[in-house]
Design goal:
Helices cover about 65% and strands about 5% of the residues. It has about 550 residues and is α+β, with helices and mostly antiparallel strands. The chain has a five-stranded antiparallel β-sheet, with no helix packed on it. Strands 6-7 form a two-stranded antiparallel ribbon. The N terminus and C terminus are likely disordered.
Length: about 550
């Protein structure tokens, strides 16, 4: 036997370290390969055995932590997972006649085609669906995306399954996002209520759920109340009472928002009328048709953009606003020059003439565009909704409120800071004096009527985003517009703003109790009685000019 010399020892140590490193790498890579192989093998085991066997396979899949499995498990829960009988491959299918197109459920890659008879659906029951939901929650709770983790916690809150407690505790231990952590705590509290927890634990869980304050929390506590013992019943009743108070406040806030939203629409429809009726004293029954023409202008502009410049669809409204204003303003000037200027001082004849004109415009639009409704698409930034402290708001209504306020502010500037506004107020206060000062009063009348009609066209652009475009679109707003102008004070823009928002909010608070039709009748009766006391509206003017 040869004894190694001292000089040879470092070489032996280095060789052993190298061998050990190679062995460790081999174990790591073989472990990774085995894990990848085990996932594929587990997926292939899903069609086999009983429902309980499949539930065990689902639990093993969740234990791998592979987020690629989430779409596969969602398809399994929906009953959309299939197996190719010949190969055992788990797939999703897309029908194509007697042949189905196959997609690998794990990799989402195309797997060719097969006859319908060659694939069999993997059946699920309620117990297996619960196991799948728990597995999806386990996989998504460890996602890198906070939104995904929040969504998983919300799903667990709705399910309120005690089996999820260990998973939630593990996720809470490493969750750093405050909002997601709060949702996880609520899901944990809902799950605790399904267990034989102590009175102290139940009280703590009830406090956590009642702090959520929404209808889902109310439903959980209400369902729990029926089977609660005497020791926990007072805590649950207090939680239900707290949620009901919170929901009552939210309902008030929601109705206020609905009223502001309706009021902004009324403001857009009435603000042009406040000029033509309030300033000029002209009862323009065709004002609603200007709104309708603005909406159809938006429809035409959007169709041109869709066919010729599809990449600019998001900018459709930016193109439609100036076009709608110019089109309706020019039509308004033509109406004033051709009809209205011969009828000043004769309100009944003006009313009949503009009413007949409204019928002519409606029929002309029917002849050009047809009688059916036309839909104007919403750009992406006006689609969907968002939550504001528990109050649901849609983006299209939100932007319309801001747009109405912007139009109001611009009109105030025009009336107060421009030469046209100064001349308009001068003509309406004293036409003879204004004419003697060199103001061309006939053109001021025409431009005033054109401005009011142009603003009505802008209202049509906004209304096209929340209502179908039809020849009768303007008729639904003309009466409400007159009520707003009369209630706020004839010729007063600030009165128009206050009147529109007031009537909108009052109408929305009356609707839940009286219904939509009776609510409008009650508002009309209120305005009639109010005008008996204040014939000149909320904000009476000393003269005929617009008070800015």
């Amino acid at each position: 036997m040869v004894t190694p010399t001292i000089r040879s020892i470092p070489g032996i140590v280095q060789s052993r370290i190298a061998f050990l490193a190679i062995a460790v790498l081999a174990v790591v890579f073989s472990g990774l390969a085995a894990q990848a192989q085990s996932i594929e093998e587990l997926v292939r085991q899903l069609p086999e055995g009983s429902y309980s066997d499949r539930g065990k396979v689902v639990a093993q899949l969740a234990a791998t932590g592979d987020v690629r499995l989430v779409p596969l498990l969602e398809a399994l829960a929906a009953g959309e997972l299939n197996v190719v009988e010949e190969t055992g491959q788990v797939v999703t299918i897309a029908p194509a006649g007697d042949i189905v197109r196959l997609t690998d459920a794990l990799t989402a890659e195309e797997a060719g085609e097969a006859p319908k008879s060659a694939v069999e659906r993997i059946r699920v029951n309620n117990g297996l669906r619960r196991a799948v939901r728990a597995a999806i929650g386990q996989l998504t709770l460890i996602s890198d995306s906070a939104a995904t983790r929040r969504s998983a916690a919300e799903a667990m809150f709705a399910a309120a399954d005690p089996d999820n407690l260990a998973l939630l505790d593990e996720a809470l231990a490493q969750e750093e996002n405050a909002g997601v952590r709060r949702t996880m705590e609520q899901a944990r509290a809902a799950s605790i209520l399904k267990t034989d927890a102590s009175a102290e634990q139940v009280a703590e869980a009830v406090d956590t759920i009642s702090a959520r304050g929404d209808r889902a929390a109310l439903g959980i506590l209400t369902a729990m109340l029926g089977q609660a013992g005497d020791d926990v019943r007072p805590a649950i009743e207090d939680g239900i009472e707290a949620i009901e108070r919170h929901l009552a406040l939210l309902d008030v806030g929601q109705n206020v928002w609905y009223g502001i939203s309706l009021g902004s629409v009324l403001l857009l429809a009435a603000i042009g009328l406040a000029i033509t009726f309030g300033v000029m004293g002209v009862i323009n029954m065709a004002h609603g048709e200007m709104v309708m023409i603005g909406a159809y202008t938006t429809f035409v502009v959007q169709n041109i953009v869709r066919t010729s410049f599809p990449g600019l669809f998001e900018w459709t409204l930016a193109f439609a606003l100036p076009v709608a204003f110019l089109v309706t303003a020019l039509i308004g000037i033509a109406i004033e020059r051709g009809i209205i200027r011969w009828l000043y001082g004769r309100p009944l004849e003006t009313l009949l003439a503009t009413w007949g004109l409204s019928l002519i415009i409606q029929q002309a639009v029917r002849s050009i565009f047809g009688a059916s409704n036309r839909e104007v698409g919403n750009p992406s930034w006006m689609s969907g909704s968002f939550d504001f402290y528990g109050i649901a708001m849609t983006w299209n209504r939100f932007w319309i409120v801001l747009f109405a306020l912007a139009v109001f502010a611009i009109l105030l500037v025009v009336m107060k800071r421009t030469a046209l506004g100064l001349q308009m107020r001068a003509v309406t206060q004293n036409r003879r004096m204004a004419s003697s000062m060199g103001i061309r009063t006939p053109w001021v009348d025409a431009l005033t009527f054109g401005l009011g009609s142009g603003i009505a066209g802008l209202a049509g652009v906004a209304l096209s985003q929340i209502d179908n475009v039809s020849p009768n679109l303007g008729q639904g707003y003309i009466i409400d517009s007159f009520m707003v102008v009369v209630f706020g004070g004839v010729g007063n823009l600030w009165g128009t703003l206050v009147g529109a928002l007031t009537l909108g909010v009052v109408n929305k608070f009356l609707e839940p109790y009286a219904g939509a039709v009776l609510a409008k009748i009650l508002v009309l009766v209120f305005i009639i009685l109010f005008i008996q006391k204040r014939p000149r509206g909320l904000f009476a003017l000393k003269g005929r000019a617009v008070e800015a």
